[in-house]
């Protein structure tokens, strides 16, 4: 049974595990939200502009400073930031629909990203993906899409 936590929750059958010789399905809930993408934004304390360096995959971030974590990365909004508790966690993100007039923005693919930063209050989406990650799941022209994301 899925319980809503700040948004719609879709229950997915993800894996089966062996328990006393029996196959018991394990359920993982996908959380619904929205995704955007970024190339730069203001950090939590508005001290300076954090610019993502796409060429070498390095980015200044709330979680890792200037240690590069590649380009399949994302920033968590206040919805699930948990005071940095999600730093380093990986999420599978899937586009589920449009949020604006761009027709059929979803590619039908999912992407796995690592949370490396905080998208501060006023963030346009629940999860702010790198441009590279967003382009895997949706047409970047859309700018913002509905998604399900699963830890």
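Sequence proposed for the structure above (151 residues):
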């Amino acid at each position: 049974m899925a319980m809503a936590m700040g948004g719609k929750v879709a229950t997915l059958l993800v894996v089966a595990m062996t328990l006393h010789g029996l196959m018991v399905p394990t359920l993982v809930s996908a959380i619904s939200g929205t995704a955007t993408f970024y190339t730069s934004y203001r950090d939590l304390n508005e001290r300076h502009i954090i610019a993502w360096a796409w060429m070498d995959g390095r980015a200044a971030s709330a979680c890792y400073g200037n240690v590069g974590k590649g380009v399949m990365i994302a920033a968590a909004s206040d919805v699930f930031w948990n005071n940095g508790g999600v730093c380093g966690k990986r999420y599978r993100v899937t586009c589920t629909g449009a949020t604006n007039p761009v027709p059929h923005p979803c590619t039908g693919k999912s992407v796995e990203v690592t949370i490396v930063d905080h998208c501060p209050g006023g963030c346009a989406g629940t999860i702010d993906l790198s441009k590279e990650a967003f382009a895997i799941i949706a047409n970047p022209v859309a700018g913002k899409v509905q998604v399900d994301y699963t830890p």
